[in-house]
Amino acid sequence: MKCFTLHSYKGGTGKTTLVANIAAILAQEGKNVAVLDLDFQAPSLHTLIGISTKTKYINDFLDGSVSHQDILNDMPSSFSLDGRMAVAFSNPDVDAIRTQLAQDRKWHMNALSQLLSLKQMLADDGFDYTILDSAPGVHYSSVNTIVLSDFAVLIAKIDNFDFDGTLNILKGLYTPLDKGTYLLFNKVVPPMFKEPRYSQMKETISEMFSDLTTVLGYVPCYCDIPMGMGSEIHALTSSEIAFVTGLRAVVKKIDEMPIPKPKAKGAKK
Does residue 268 lie within any of the structural domains? Predict the structure, then answer.
């Protein structure tokens, strides 16, 4: 089983939308995919997919009140997926969020141990992928998702704010953790795909990031996405739009890539 996280320096990159659509594409291709919303500070996957009043949350699993199977919510059969797509949500209740924000380092260390056990349970259940929706930035919970993952996909937009922030966490967080990373640019406006802008964009990005990570791709902006009011997975409803076709190329790379191996101690970069 491959386990990877989608992470970003800051919010607003479209990370959660990408998580849901990547999972859906993999499930359409016959893969069994578990999705975990580990953004305890601002959970949003439930808005995109929808939850019932009987939903049990990852929070409940971490406090030991439910089993891992209790928190998995399968996508409706009406989507006719060839594989299984099951989602576990973080509790969006304000009191639950406050509780998570107040947790200390010891709690998060225990949570990591439980999440590692959950990862193994999902592998034993026959899942081919576990995809983690991480909190942005550098917090205990986001560091846990990175440690839990085989590799991380960093999501960024084409602007200097994201460039600088992404560079900072690559050097300050991912390099010390010795974790394999890939860089995916989202919400790329159509004029950026035209020459000479496209070559200039890739050259700038190569100069900044080529020594630290590998660029996975560029996902075009689809301005109609907000019209779905955050409750539509376009890979399931609008499969021919450029956003989805561009993302399918990215998913193909993810499916074909080997799991990065940690560098041997003392090895040169």
Answer: no
